[in-house]
Each structure stands twice: as structure tokens, then as C-alpha cells.
């Protein structure tokens, strides 16, 4: 029987610094409790003295290794990208009529900038997305699927990363031990429906055996070459003489997640795949929530930069600003109940706009709220069932290469780049129209290799 009272929890954020011993206020020789990471002591004696009061919460604190847990966040990101409520990318629903081969060259646009151009033709049936009908000139099925995944994973980097962070705050850092709590209604043996507010445990993330003391969103730019970004030309559905252009995901407006301990910092980036930085969790099945409600993915886009990888990896992100989620008082206030009320939704959207530095549109706002709630349910279920204990003892990561990516570029790449630049200059000077530019580029892309060779020798003209 319902009491009509909305359940509420309290956020218990971890300590951000070692200021003084919780027993004697000493400020030297400080260290955290090695079991829970929640209490500060200066000596073994102080820890023993405090044990009577501390043991109840300490014994009910379980520390989760972020280095093994992060693929679950990558799963959340993948699920968001296939959400039916997310607008379908135009390039998914139109035929690809050129060959946007990665790692070859960028095409110069009329405004002087460069990108890897994708020419979109006639609309196709949704059932044909990712098929040979969608991209008939693909070199191989492997390359076709790589391009499909890059486009599918493009966009909405901020609501994806923010929804994960808020879900983590809501479901892990509001859990606290209550010895009087009834048996967990999420236990399958009870035959009762899962309740995301049924935690009877406190969980905390750790990395390199140190407690995570803060996490949040980093905003900045990603180290990406122009040839690994996309720009799209699409013919108007009403008139083939009208051509529209729009850019893909902008590497200068990039978002990723940081995690801090008292000693060092770690980075998780889930939004670089579209830039052809194709690092993945090679086997995504173990990280899918149980119960058959959720789909599985063969791979999960993303990477985690821990201590070892940081020492052997060049800088990929350039941070401009950061925004703590764990220690944000406004966000702490809205996650204490299972659902967001209208005020809570406004606070969540306001935080996103503060990070973005702009007014967000209604689609972004709706997706953020929906994905945060979905991620909260998955996170709560994971913690309740301790699904993280069944994750692999190492994360099976890999890179999804393109065919021939390890070899030298195609022999006509240099001439292709020169031709694109020449046409770009002609369009800027008004010698040819934008439609003529697109037509010439399309014709060039369709030429067989031997005809391109003849053109280079001056035997043929386009």
C-alpha cells in the first residue's frame, strides 16, 4: 500500500582532500581508510578507536574498479545512439553516391576549409540503411559498415556524456547503508518488481586502488585531421538543382568525462569514433544489462586513458573548461528522488546549457532527460544485481581498421586533392556554380582508375 510519500535519498560525495584526522584533527601523516576510502586517519591507533562507529558503514561500502567498469558507460552511450527518439541522421536515409574513403585526403570547400565530403543522393527505405543499396561503391562490406557506424555515432556528444554522469551521481553516490531496510525488492527470489530506490549498499568508484573523488564533463577540442571529419552535400527532395550542405560533428566542440582521485586524473572519451578514432571494446555482450530488455552490441565505441595508456598515448583532447557533476549542489538536489519534476528538468537543462555555452534546442533537452532516466534505471539495476562482478577481468579493446589502412594511400590521392582544390577556387571566383562543383566532383569520383590516369596525362578532360 502506497503511503503517498515520495522516497528521498541524500547525496554522499567523497572527500576531495585530506584535511585532518577524523579522530584527533591531526593534519600530518593522513591517509584514507583502505576499505571504504571514506574516512581520514593519521594513524592505526585513531583508526582502531573509530572502528566502533565506522564499521557499520565501512562494511557496507563496496569499491568498484573503474578500469573494468567503464565499458558499461560505453554501453549506455551506444544505447542512446540507437534510441528511436533520436533524430535519424540524413546520411543514414540517403544513398551515398561518392567514395568518402578515410585516411586519404580532405576536400577543400568553397569557404576554404577542408573536410571529407559525403555526397547524398536519393532517399532510401529505412530497411536499406547500411546495405549495398545504401553505399553501392564501397570497396568492401567491412568499409561500408565502418562508415555506417561512424555516421550513426555522430552527434549529441554533450547529452550522451552528461546523462551518464548524472546517472552515476544519482544511483551510486546517493546510496547509503540502512540496516532497517526491508529485503531488496529487486531480488528475483522475491518475485517483486525491480525498484531503483531499493539499494541497501554503498558503492564507490576507484581507479589504481584510489577512490574517485570527483568526476564531470570536460569541454574542449579533439586532435582530429580534416580528412577525418564529415561534411554532407544533399540534393533537395524537391529539386535536384538545389544542393544543401551541412557539417558533421565538430572536433572543436568536443566533450569527454574526467575522473579524479587525490593523486591523479583519468579520462574516458565515448565520442571519437565518428572522427575515425575507432577504438572500441571488442566484445560488448558482457556489459549488456540482463533480462532481455536491452539489445546487445558487438562492439562499444570509446576508450579509457588510465595511467599506462596515458604514458604511451599522445595528447588527444585539449581542455578549455571543466564542470564537476559529482560536487554540483544543484544536480545533487535533483537526483534524490526516482524521477525529475519540472523544476529538476529545468535545472538539468540549465546545467547542459552552461556547459555548452549556448541555448540548446528542444530535441537536445528531451534527449538529455530521457537518456538520464534510462541510464539511471540501468545503473541502479547494475548495482542492485552486482552485475559488475561478472565483467571480464580485463577490457578487450581493439581498433576497427579500414581495409588497407596500414598501407600507402591510393596512387591518385594527390591528383584528387589537387583537382578538388582547383574546383574550389573556380567556385569561389564564380567560374562555376555550386551545383556544377558538386556535379564535377561526383563525376570525378565515379571515374574508373584507368580514366583518372588518362586525365592526369592530359588525354581526357572532365
UniProtKB/TrEMBL annotation:
InterPro entries per UniProt: Znf_MYND (IPR002893)
Domain MYND-type stretches: 21-58
Highest taxon listed in the record's lineage: Eukaryota
Record carries keyword Nucleotidyltransferase: no
One Gene Ontology MF term: zinc ion binding
Any Pfam family: zf-MYND
Keywords: Metal-binding, Zinc, Zinc-finger
Protein name: MYND-type domain-containing protein
Amino acid at each position: 500500500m502506497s503511503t503517498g510519500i515520495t522516497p528521498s535519498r541524500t547525496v554522499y560525495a567523497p572527500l576531495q582532500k585530506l584535511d585532518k584526522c577524523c579522530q584527533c584533527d591531526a593534519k600530518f601523516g593522513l591517509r584514507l581508510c583502505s576499505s571504504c576510502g571514506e574516512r581520514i586517519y593519521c594513524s592505526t591507533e585513531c583508526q582502531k578507536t573509530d572502528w566502533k562507529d565506522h564499521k557499520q558503514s565501512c562494511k557496507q561500502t563496496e569499491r568498484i574498479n573503474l578500469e573494468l567498469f567503464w565499458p558499461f558507460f560505453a554501453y549506455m552511450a551506444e544505447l542512446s545512439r540507437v534510441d528511436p527518439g533520436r533524430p535519424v541522421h540524413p546520411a543514414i536515409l540517403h544513398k551515398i553516391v561518392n567514395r568518402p574513403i578515410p585516411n586519404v585526403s580532405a576536400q577543400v570547400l568553397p569557404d576554404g576549409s577542408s573536410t571529407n565530403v559525403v555526397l547524398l543522393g536519393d532517399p532510401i527505405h529505412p530497411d536499406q540503411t547500411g546495405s549495398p543499396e545504401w553505399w553501392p561503391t564501397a570497396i568492401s562490406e567491412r568499409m561500408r559498415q565502418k562508415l555506417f557506424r561512424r555516421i550513426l555515432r555522430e552527434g549529441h556528444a554533450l547529452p550522451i556524456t552528461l546523462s551518464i554522469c548524472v546517472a552515476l551521481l544519482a544511483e551510486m553516490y546517493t546510496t547509503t547503508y540502512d540496516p532497517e531496510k526491508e529485503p531488496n525488492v529487486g531480488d528475483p527470489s522475491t518475485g517483486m518488481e525491480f525498484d531503483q530506490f531499493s539499494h541497501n549498499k554503498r558503492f564507490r568508484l576507484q581507479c589504481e586502488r584510489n577512490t574517485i573523488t570527483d568526476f564531470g564533463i570536460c569541454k574542449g577540442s579533439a586532435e582530429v585531421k580534416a580528412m577525418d571529419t564529415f561534411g554532407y552535400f544533399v540534393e533537395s527532395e524537391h529539386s535536384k538543382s538545389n544542393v544543401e550542405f551541412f557539417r558533421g560533428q565538430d572536433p572543436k566542440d568536443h566533450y569527454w568525462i574526467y575522473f579524479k582521485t587525490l593523486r591523479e586524473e583519468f579520462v574516458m572519451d565515448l565520442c571519437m569514433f565518428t572522427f575515425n578514432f575507432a577504438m572500441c571494446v571488442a566484445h560488448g555482450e558482457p556489459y549488456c544489462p540482463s533480462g532481455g530488455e536491452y539489445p546487445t552490441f558487438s562492439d562499444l565505441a570509446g576508450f579509457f586513458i588510465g595511467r599506462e595508456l596515458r604514458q604511451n598515448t599522445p595528447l588527444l583532447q585539449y581542455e578549455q573548461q571543466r564542470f564537476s557533476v559529482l560536487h554540483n549542489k544543484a544536480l545533487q538536489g535533483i537526483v534524490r528522488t526516482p524521477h525529475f519534476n519540472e523544476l529538476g528538468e529545468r535545472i538539468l537543462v540549465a546545467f547542459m546549457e552552461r556547459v555548452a555555452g549556448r541555448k540548446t534546442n528542444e530535441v537536445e533537452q528531451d534527449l538529455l532527460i530521457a537518456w538520464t532516466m534510462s541510464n539511471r534505471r540501468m545503473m541502479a539495476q547494475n548495482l542492485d544485481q552486482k552485475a559488475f562482478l561478472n565483467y571480464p577481468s580485463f577490457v578487450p579493446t581493439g581498433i576497427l581498421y579500414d581495409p588497407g589502412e596500414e598501407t600507402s594511400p591510393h596512387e591518385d590521392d594527390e591528383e584528387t586533392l589537387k583537382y578538388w582544390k582547383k574546383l574550389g577556387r573556380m567556385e569561389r571566383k564564380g567560374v562555376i556554380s555550386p551545383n556544377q562543383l558538386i556535379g564535377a566532383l561526383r563525376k570525378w569520383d565515379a571515374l574508373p582508375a584507368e580514366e583518372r590516369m588518362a586525365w592526369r596525362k592530359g588525354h581526357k578532360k572532365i
